[in-house]
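Ticket #123: bound-state structure for FE2/S2 (inorganic) cluster.
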Amino acid sequence: MKERNGKRRVAVAPVDEFPPGARLEIKVGNRSIAVFNVKGEYFAIFGLCPHQSAPLSRGRLQGTVVCNEHTNWEKEWAHDGEVLVCPGHAMEFDLRTGKAFGYGMKLRTYDVIVEDDWVTVIL
Ligand code: FES
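RESOLUTION: The complex was predicted; output attached.
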C-alpha cells in the first residue's frame, strides 16, 4: 500500500492480468473490497452485502430494466454489465454508484486508476 496526496493506494493486479470480465476481492485491514473490470472500465465497491454479508466479488453482473422520466416512462434496458447481483439473496447494486436498486441504501465505492501498469484502488 502506497500513500500519495494523503490518499492510500492499493495495487490490485497488473493491468495485463486483469482483463475485461475479471474480478478480485482484496482485503485492506478488515475491509473487503470487490474490484471488477467491466468492458475495460474498472470499478471497486465495498465487498460485503449489507443484508447478510455475502461476498459481492462473487456476484453476477447484468443490466436492468428502467422506466422513469428519462425513458419517457417506457421500459428500457440499462446499466448493462454494471448491476451487481448479490450471490446471497439477489439484492442488486449499481456498480457505478453503489446504490441498491429498490432499497434506500448505498455501498461505498472507490476510485480505481492504472498506475505504473497496475490496477490501483484509491482509498
Ligand atoms: S446477503 Fe446479499 S441479499 Fe442477502
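RESOLUTION NOTES: Residues 49, 51-52, 54, 86, 88-89, 91 surround FE2/S2 (inorganic) cluster (CB under 6 Å).
TICKET STATUS: resolved
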